[in-house]
Amino acid sequence: EEMEGDVACPFQQDYPNGPQLSEESLLILENSRKLRQALTFDEITLEDRPTNFHPRDVSLRTYITRKISLTGCGLLSAAMDTVTEGKLALALAKVGGMGIIHRNLDPETQAQMVNWVRRKIHFGGMIDKPVTFQPDDRVSKLQREIANNGWTFTSFPIVDKNRKLLGLLTRDEIDFAEDRNLTLAELMKPRNDVVTAPQNTDGEAAYAIMKSKRVKKLMVVDDDDVLKGLFVWGDVKKDLKKKQSFSLDDKGNFLVGAAIGIGAEDMQRVELLADAGCRVIVLDCSHGSCLPAVEQIKRIREKFADSIEIIVGNIASYASAMYLLDNEHRPDGLKVGIGPGSICTTRVVTGHGIPQVTAVYEVWRAVQDYGKKTGYYVPIIADGGIRSSGDIVKCLAVGASSVMLGSVFAGTDESPGSVVEMKGKRFKTIRGMGSRSAMEDRSGSRGRYFQENADSEELTNSQKEKLTPEGVEGLVEYRGSVEKVVFEFLEGVKAGMSHSGGKTVSEFRKNCAPWIQSTAGIIEGKPHDLVGVRQ
């Protein structure tokens, strides 16, 4: 019997009995469970099945929470300070994923970052703070500013001291200056010749206006003719072409999530994030099945009801999932993974953690058992250890609806980490949130791993010596742009799902047939017997 209110839940509508696994998946996973043998990605492989469609016809839409689905296979970026800040979250939202802004930021900065990402689509790609000049400025000043700042654009609104629009200067007008150091007022296109749009014009409307008027720059002004923004034809045209793959909320803004801690003091952070329009909150904790996490869910639900989607993690067992589900106030998603990440040492330090394939399955079992009793099912996010598109395919096969990537995205252009060159190759820095440097730098990392002194930012030398790291820092290979990386991963997932005859995630999950493979089989399935292997 379904609980009240669940009928309207999109996840519940698509999965009235929760995501179902194939008989073959259940066979190997149950047999391993009865023997207390835990499996991870390399230890299973999927057999090919007949397919009557092309991989391009595969749909990768899947759920990250009970209400929110993404077109890009539920790709989430990890809430790490060398992975996800505004720039990466924006890039990921544009290709069907979603970034989770890390919490090693003060609450105000984190909320501002969320707001910045969301607004990038609300204004349809509008530049809300275009570079402007005043009419008395001369060509020499303009040229100096362009050179000093390395600007590649050459269109500048001309405004008065109150930002009232007076004209527009483009490359064409600048060329006519020749050898004369004229004022910009003498060169600019006058206000009457500048095409404008009213405040709150969105990208689609801007595109229509620019196409109709045949202009590549569109000024946005308020009722008093004060400049509020600028649309650029190339940006708007590109965004509109790709908009169908964008991750947007119900108000048309880019989707972006944020990580918080499990202490009562983090409610201030939640309130700021809610005010910024954040729809997804991730309770970020190394041991997610704990009383403070349950209490934090209750605090958020009592204040914000269902207006915020709550993902809780990390967990890796049936008992931990049941602990979080079997409460009056429940999460909207469960994040699975203790120790599988490339920079995580929790298994080494604590002796705890379950290989990821089995961990996902164990949480799936709990979700199924709880759902059968209550009608309440939640998506599972596999977090950690994913190195390839094939690993994502295997996560989906054993019960995950979504995946979170850290080291993969750390190597992209948009991540905050710095670039390092070694022996002619480029790398980017990455550090675990449980690494010594992260714990020493910020209280967010200390709080995540239940360390002392999580309530203050700075530590004494004595306090630093008493930290117990559960992560490391290092370098990952430079991968290029988020768009490039995501494209390669999603094409791989499409190919993988089509190999099992699955046109949708649900169909794939029911069709796929895993095998446990030997060490020799693992070696056979990777490049071998070659010299100088290149990707």
Tell me the fraction of residues in β-strands, as a range.
Answer: 15-25%
Number of strands: 21
**What is the overall pLDDT average?**
90
The global form is elongated
Number of discrete helical segments: 22
Q: What is the straight-line distance between the termini?
A: 52 Å
Stretches where pLDDT is under 50 for at least 5 consecutive residues are 1-5
Q: What characterizes the major β-sheet?
A: 8 strands, parallel, barrel
Structural class given helices, strands, pairing? alpha/beta
Strand order of the largest sheet: 4-5-12-13-14-15-16-17
What value does the Rg take, in angstroms? Answer: 26 Å
Helix content: 25-40%
Description:
The protein is an alpha/beta fold and 535 residues long. The chain is elongated and about 85 Å long. Residues 1-5 have low confidence and may be disordered.
Keyword list:
22 helices, elongated
Write the layout of secondary structure elements.
Blueprint lengths: L9 H5 L8 H12 L9 E3 L15 E2 L5 E2 L4 E3 L8 H8 L4 E4 L5 H16 L16 H11 L6 E4 L5 E5 L1 H5 L8 H4 L1 E2 L5 E3 L4 H11 L3 E5 L5 E6 H10 L14 E4 L6 H9 L4 E5 L6 H14 L4 E7 L2 H8 L7 E4 L9 H5 L5 H19 L5 E4 L5 H9 L4 E4 L1 H4 L8 E4 L2 E7 L4 H6 L1 H6 L12 H5 L7 E5 L4 H18 L5 H7 L2 E3 L2 H6 L11
Parallel strand pairs: 4-5, 4-17, 5-12, 9-10, 12-13, 13-14, 14-15, 15-16, 16-17
Antiparallel strand pairs: 1-21, 2-3, 6-7, 7-8, 10-11, 18-19, 19-20
Quick description:
With 535 residues, this protein is an alpha/beta fold.
